[in-house]
Amino acid sequence: MRRKTLDRLDWELLKTLAENPGISYTEIKEKLNFSIGTIYMRVRRLQEDWGIIKGQRLVLDPQKLGFSLVTLIRVQATDPAKFIEAAKAHPEVGAIWMTTGEMNVYVEAYFRSPAELQEFLTKLVKHGATRMETQLILDKPVDKGVPVLPPSNLPERATTGPSRKSSSSAKSKAKK
């Protein structure tokens, strides 16, 4: 299998989509000056073939949905994999990270009241949490996601296989 090499267009597409995931291919065409077909194929490759684009998400305001408590719960779990499997089933959970260190799992969760938070913490103990530290998120002033930072030695065009031109010219030479 060939190595995945992102070129300038791939990085520009990623940057454009990161800034506005809902942008239309027509708008991308106008912005980047490439055909819709090229854009479609590149996005498809980045998403389906290479798995770089994992999806698009709706960003919601927890306060406006009634979640007055947004928490980051640091957990020391006896069996992190088993703990994560059990914890991810709870609808209050927004994200879970497995980390290094004594506190080996972080859980982001949303609650409408301190009573809901207390009930959830009790469930985490039953799932194997031996120690927990709960922090309330007061504000999230920066949430930019994964940075789109192309490497300095970026190729102009990706080299992922023979182009159509070289394939068709090879076929015509073989016929002669």
What report would you give on this structure?
Residues 160-176 have low confidence and may be disordered. The longest helix is centred in the N-terminal third of the chain and has 14 residues, at 36-49. This protein has helices at 8-19, 25-32, 36-49, 80-87, 114-126, 164-175; strands spanning 69-77, 93-98, 105-111, 129-136. The chain has two domains: 7-57, Winged helix-like DNA-binding domain superfamily/Winged helix DNA-binding domain (Arc Repressor Mutant, subunit A, Orthogonal Bundle); 63-136, Alpha-Beta Plaits. The chain is built from six helices and four strands.
Secondary structure layout:
Layout: H1 8-19, H2 25-32, H3 36-49, E1 69-77, H4 80-87, E2 93-98, E3 105-111, H5 114-126, E4 129-136, H6 164-175
Antiparallel strand pairs: 1-3, 1-4, 2-3
